[in-house]
């Protein structure tokens, strides 16, 4: 019997899903999980997701580099905002990061109860995540961080991309997964163009970070997965076939 | 400036939307709102949506025909279930109906606070609803009844159909509307085939009501809108151009 794959569009709906024994893939494309994968792919030793700004700030004294963002803007007093580009060229390799973001860390927190494992996903490591999931004996729940509780286009399209990639190996067990698989398959040849309509992409464009958007929509830049071990996200390499 | 149109995928998310002064279009394609439009299109004088079975049952003594369904099955002791076909050929013309359904009546209830007006929508009166909305000076919120709080495909595709029909006249103000407009436009030539994958369609097929499904997916059988006036849904005719 095939394993199941399902999609939850928002942390506001996660209570309707049974997380127990599932692998939860948390996604916040613009930009938390894309940034996390970039950081891990560029050698940071771990990322600790933190719910609030104050706790995150206090971790500086413990030797963490602190990264914080609210409403798409870097937070006051933080070394790093939420741009994936800041981590390129192994800029912070070997360091521990503490990171708090508007929606992403909340979604990770809400994914914990009973999950077999929690991954973070992004377009930039889509194939690695898919390859890993195929080898695991568990149902999958893709948990979209959304925007302040609402459905958002980029996270949902990532869900569609992952479902599409895994469609041969998994049974699609909810309407959200069916809808987004189909939408991804018809828009994937021009994902940036389609997503330019999205509300959050427009917000980000207002902050002059088109380069971040373009970066986050690339496929398969990193052949690692991002996995929560204890309180820390760490990288695991995936062997290319 | 154009009026706005937005989509809410579930009553579980309606608290994130500002209903105030908007026209809310409630949709529960399989089958509450399709059945209501069919009944109104076949001459019933009014439909009173009722949240619970007991209240609905008690209204029989007040002269209402009572219609009730739970989990896709007719409820015990009710004359009518939730099949639109039962109302064809003016079978209950001139009568008052009290109706309770799993998801549809809840969505109507949750749409009331501050709305300028509440309509019920279905594929079978898509053009009539669109035509009416164009003439009104109000933003629109399409409220999908969903399935036990989750996104469902048929209600969301109706939302996409209505957004697609109104795209020239309204500004699309949320990602859910963008997603479903696109999905509807790529699936509309084979809506029944695409929806056959949907979880609720599968449930209904198990109840041997394929005829209901086919009926609910037809476009524009009735040139009326269904509008809540006080506690009653009533029909208003739309002049064809």
From TrEMBL, chains A, B:
Pfam families: 2-ph_phosp. Its EC number is 3.1.3.71. Keywords: Hydrolase, Magnesium. It comes from the Bacteria. It is an enzyme of class 3 (hydrolase). It catalyses: (2R)-O-phospho-3-sulfolactate + H2O = (2R)-3-sulfolactate + phosphate. The keyword Nucleotide-binding does not apply. The keyword Hydrolase applies. Its cofactor is Mg(2+). Belongs to the ComB family. This is Probable 2-phosphosulfolactate phosphatase. It comes from Belliella kenyensis. The gene is comB.
């Amino acid at each position: 019997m095939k394993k199941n794959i399902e999609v939850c569009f928002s942390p506001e709906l996660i209570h309707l899903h049974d997380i127990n024994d599932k692998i939860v893939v948390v996604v916040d494309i613009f930009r938390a999980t894309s940034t996390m994968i970039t950081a891990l792919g560029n050698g940071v030793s771990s990322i600790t997701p933190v719910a609030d700004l104050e706790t995150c700030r206090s971790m500086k004294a413990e030797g963490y580099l602190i990264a914080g963002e609210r409403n798409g803007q870097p937070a006051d007093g933080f070394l790093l905002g939420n741009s994936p580009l800041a981590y390129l060229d192994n800029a912070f390799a070997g360091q521990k990061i503490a990171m708090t973001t508007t929606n992403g860390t909340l979604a990770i927190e809400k994914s914990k109860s009973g999950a077999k494992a929690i991954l973070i996903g992004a377009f930039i490591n889509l194939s690695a995540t898919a390859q890993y999931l195929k080898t695991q004996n568990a149902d999958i729940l893709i948990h979209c961080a959304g925007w302040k509780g609402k459905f958002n286009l980029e996270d949902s399209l990532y869900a569609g991309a992952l479902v599409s990639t895994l469609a041969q190996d998994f049974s699609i067990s909810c309407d959200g997964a069916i809808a987004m698989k189909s939408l991804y398959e018809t828009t994937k040849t021009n994902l940036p163009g389609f997503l330019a309509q999205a509300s959050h992409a427009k917000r980000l464009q207002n902050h002059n970070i088109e380069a971040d958007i373009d970066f986050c929509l690339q496929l398969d830049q990193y052949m690692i997965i991002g996995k929560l071990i204890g309180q820390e996200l760490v990288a695991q390499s995936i062997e290319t076939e």
